[in-house]
Design a protein that fits this description.
heterodimer; A: about 80 residues; mainly alpha; B: about 575 residues; alpha/beta; 9-stranded mixed sheet; 5-stranded parallel sheet; 20 helices; about 25% strand
């Protein structure tokens, strides 16, 4: 079972690659809408990348009130 | 698209019905073997239902509600993402003569509970994850609906007294309860989750008239497929993704996952005919298309550009879908090849974006409406296409511009059988909004010589986001209570400094600091932190420091209009407003 920190690390890697930002600029507590400069649809696109990576299904509502990478990692961990 | 007289003859005639329950019931009989619903999730298709199967799924629920005393005039709320069960629950409520309270599933649990209390809902039908969130809030103590049905709950979940949708069993048939045209059908909240709730009481007549008006312009018929993406609680999807297609025997397609890639796939997979999209999603589609075109090799790109130019020239006087599909085959294949029209409205759409789609032969009909008016007021009939207007008034709509200025721009007022009855439990707000039968919209517009309405901003203190969400400043002020400032007030920036545009609307906070208090980084940080707790479309994006006391009424309420005027007279937007 992966730890929360490992999951966060993988999410940050994916987000950095997908939205073409420097990995070093991202941290667990960042508001990803603001940090990545993305809208809600782009955030949903990221969700699909995460599903493929972690091989899980994340319903759209899991992202509804999530704004930071750490909480997102918790939601993913609960489904691993 | 020409009026399809065959479709008109085939559809259930709304004018012959007194209520939605009665009209839908006839549709279920008339089109019993046609497909009414397709529900998909990612690549999977969950199910496909005929109108007969839809009825078979709904009526046990109606009986269940009746057996629990939820019937004629009872208020039942639905809080669900778009899916078959949403429409089944709605039909069951109408069948039993009840009043439906459709709530936005994207609101927070606390907001759901506030609106459930305001609407005095006696029953609630919702999804497990939404119910769980409600039970986890402090406000849940005040929850009083006697019957709660939840879908998709895990077996071991604590349901806090709720029942499972999957366990609904009812012996016998429900009793159909007739309603009259002026009876309440729905209470639709156009805003007011944190401030003054605006529960629009909509009658059966409102919906039946709206359905007749819309289908006269854009008919549906069996075989038509409507992709339901906007939340069904929203007036547009409720009409165009439920009542309209059902009364015409058409099919509604629901996607349980609204991610752009699955939405794009759905167009071709389900051969979609109509869809309604908010500008944000249209923009996303546009970006995807541009990216594809940019990747074309130079020669192909050259040929493509010439074909687009040719299509533009040949469709200048009016759309020709058959021709456009031939000229730009691959573009249209990406949309499934059956797409007739994309409807858009509810927020500002960039005319250049609409023109871009039109030049590709993808017809986008831009409209204007508001919940209080019963969905759409004007709609572009594409005869010819106009990117710069929101179209002409729909049949049965009287629309006028009141108190026009020297440029003939004034406030838009609407009179029609589709206009809501009143705001729930708020006669004062109702009397300010509906005057002598005219709905005063708060939007600024002007009619051109062709009878098209053009919009030029709004005079009410609110914004509409690209996602089509109305946000009222009063609704988010609670988030900033306790900020270490002397006083504060949230405004729509355009309310203080009117702009003759619907584009780029934003919310700002105006504050007065304590005597001797400095504007510090810590204060801005706290503002940003609190802002982050709001859903992203509700966030403020600027602040302004006002050096004087806020004007107040005798009961100490801030006089917003007076304050806005004072700011406008003394400060310019450019000099005073700081970005957050």
């Amino acid at each position: 079972m992966q730890t929360s920190e490992e999951i966060i690390g993988e999410i940050l890697n994916l987000a950095a690659a997908h939205f073409n930002v420097s990995r070093g600029e991202l941290s667990a507590n960042d508001d990803f809408f603001k940090k990545l400069g993305i809208d809600s649809l782009q955030a949903l696109e990221m969700l699909t990348r995460l599903e493929n990576h972690f091989k899980i299904e994340l319903p759209d509502y899991e992202l509804q009130d999530v704004r930071d990478f750490r909480t997102l990692a918790e939601r993913i961990k609960a489904r691993l | 698209m020409p009026l399809n007289s065959t479709a008109q003859l085939a559809m259930v005639d709304p004018s012959k019905h007194q209520s939605l329950g009665s009209a839908l019931s006839e549709a279920l009989d008339k089109f019993s073997n046609e497909t009414c619903l397709i529900e998909a999730d990612r690549e999977r298709e969950n199910h496909r239902l005929s109108f007969r199967q839809f009825g078979e799924g709904s009526l046990p629920l109606a009986k269940f509600l009746q057996d629990r005393g939820i019937g004629s005039d009872s208020r039942t709320a639905i809080v669900m993402t778009n899916q078959s069960r949403w429409l089944m629950a709605a039909y069951a409520i109408f069948y039993t003569g009840g009043v439906l309270i459709p709530l936005d599933y994207k609101l927070t649990a606390t907001e759901h509970l506030a609106l459930l209390a305001h609407s005095k809902s006696e029953a609630l039908i919702t999804e497990y994850h939404l119910w769980r969130a409600m039970t986890e809030t402090d406000r849940f103590r005040e929850f009083s609906a006697g019957t709660v049905l939840v879908t998709d709950a895990p077996k071991s979940a604590d349901l806090h007294g709720a029942l499972r949708w999957e366990d609904v069993k009812a012996d016998g048939q429900p009793v159909y309860t007739p309603r009259q045209r002026k009876d309440w059908a729905c209470i639709v909240y156009s805003s007011g989750t944190g401030g003054r709730p605006k529960g629009c009481v909509m009658t059966h007549e409102n919906y039946l008239e709206q359905c007749a008006a819309l289908t006269s312009l854009f008919p549906f018929w069996p075989g038509v497929r409507y992709l339901s993406i906007l939340p069904t609680n929203h007036a547009i999807d409720f009409m165009v993704g439920f009542i309209g297609p059902f009364l015409c025997g058409a099919t509604v397609v629901h996607l349980r996952t609204l991610r752009p890639e699955f939405v794009r796939q759905a167009f071709s997979k389900y051969q979609i005919t109509y869809v309604t999209l908010v500008p944000l999603i249209l923009k996303n589609l546009l970006t995807g298309l541009e990216k594809r075109f940019d990747e074309l090799p130079p020669f192909k790109r050259f040929v493509f550009n010439r074909l687009v130019a040719l299509n533009r020239a040949l469709t200048k006087k009016g759309p020709n879908t058959t021709l456009s599909r031939k000229l730009l085959k691959q573009v249209h294949a990406g949309f499934g090849g059956q797409l007739q029209t994309i409807f858009t409205g509810g927020a500002f759409s960039d005319p250049a974006m609409l023109q871009y789609f039109y030049d590709l032969g993808i017809l986008v009909s831009n409209g204007y409406g508001l919940t209080e008016a019963g969905t759409a007021v004007t709609l572009n009939d594409l005869k010819p296409f106009r990117a710069d207007t929101v179209g002409k008034p729909l049949p049965g709509m009287e629309v006028k511009v009141i108190y026009p200025d020297s440029d003939e721009i004034g406030q838009v007022a609407v009179r029609s059988k589709t206009v809501m009855s009143h705001y729930l439990d708020d006669p004062e707000l109702t009397s300010q909004t509906i005057i002598d039968g005219w709905l005063i919209t708060g939007d600024l517009g002007r009619f051109d010589s062709e009878g098209h309405l053009q919009l030029f901003g709004r005079i009410k203190n609110m914004i509409v986001t690209e996602e089509g969400k109305n946000v009222y400043p009063e609704d988010i002020e609670k988030t900033f209570e306790g900020l270490p400032v002397k006083d504060f007030c949230v405004f729509a920036a355009n309310y203080i400094w009117p702009e003759r545009s619907m584009a780029g609307e934003k919310l700002i906070i105006v504050w007065q600091l304590h005597e001797g208090q400095e504007l510090t980084g810590a204060l801005l940080e706290e503002l940003a932190e609190r802002n982050k707790t709001l859903l992203n479309f509700k966030r403020i994006s600027g602040y302004l420091t006002w050096p004087e006391e806020f004007p107040r009424t005798a009961s100490m309420k801030i006089k917003r209009q007076v304050l806005a005027e004072e700011i406008r007279q003394r400060l310019t937007r450019q000099s005073a407003l700081k970005d957050l």
